[in-house]
Amino acid sequence: MLVAPLDLASGRSSGLVPESSCLLPSLMPPRPFVLAESNWKAVKDTPFEVAILPWGATEPHNYHLPYATDNYETGALAERAAEIAWNKGAKVVVLPTVPFGVNTGQLDLKLAINMNPSTQLAVLTDIASALSGQGIRKLLVLNGHGGNDFKQMIRELQPRIDLFICVINWWTCVKGADHFDEPGDHAGEMETSIMMSLKPDLLRPLSEAGPGTARKFRIAALRESWAWAPRQWTEVTDDTGTGNPKASTVAKGEKFMRAVTEKIGGFLVDLANADLAEMYE
Fold first, then answer.
1. Start-end of H helices in 200-273
2. Is residue 189 exposed (0-12), middle (13-18) or buried (19+ Cβ within 10 Å)?
């Protein structure tokens, strides 16, 4: 079939050309390691070795960062790490980010959306079962929210599903203190610097951010972290942040993300190449 493409300069048709020439030259997506951008033409014959599941949360992040901060960060880090691994020959694929996390301590904060651990287990079970049934043997859960804890879920799934499942909390890959004056726990210098790099249009001015001052437990064992209990967020912080964001910069965020993604990217290459029957030295 012939079509007449429009000459944008004159507004007139520039002649008949085959319809196929109006199509993209390739059906291979520009980032074949990102499932959301891929198509069946590219996916059906690709022998993916590792699936990456970014898992975040939807919650307030001080006055200046968006509710989806954990999702933006974790999705971007997963994609950057996957690109590093893909370029080294590892067949990895990033799944769409799960946007809800465990926020039982923030339920009194408007539009903080909680997903209970039992619900997370059900979601993870369905995803893992689907991947296993399709022949994918390895899954990395890339966690971006401190309230999420997947270790016991993975232990429960290990004997039930023929799939190697592991988890990384991305903020533990590299020491934040090596990159930031005061990394912070939530919406502090680390997260603010990352978001300044990733989504600067979604940030309010730093002058509007709260100080991120966090109250500590009165009981020494809880304060020193050798005993643990969940925190009631509105009793801990007045602005929902824990960590001062004032020293945040784009350069700090980019440098930190490079270090994190290089480390995770290397792990993905190792995982993709690993023989699951020979995992121990």
1. 220-223, 233-236, 250-273
2. buried
Average pLDDT estimate for 229-249: 97
Strand, helix or coil for residue 234 = helix
Instruction: Report pTM.
Output: 0.90
Residue 132 tokens read as: 């296993």
- Position 10 scores a pLDDT of 41
Residues in the chain: 281
Helix (H) or strand (E) holding 75: helix 69-87
- Decide if pLDDT at 26 tops 80: no
Residue with tokens 């926020």: 103
In CATH, which of 3.40.50.10310, 3.40.50.360, 1.10.260.40, 3.40.50.620 is domain 29-273?
3.40.50.10310
Per-residue pLDDT, averaged over 6-16, amounts to 44
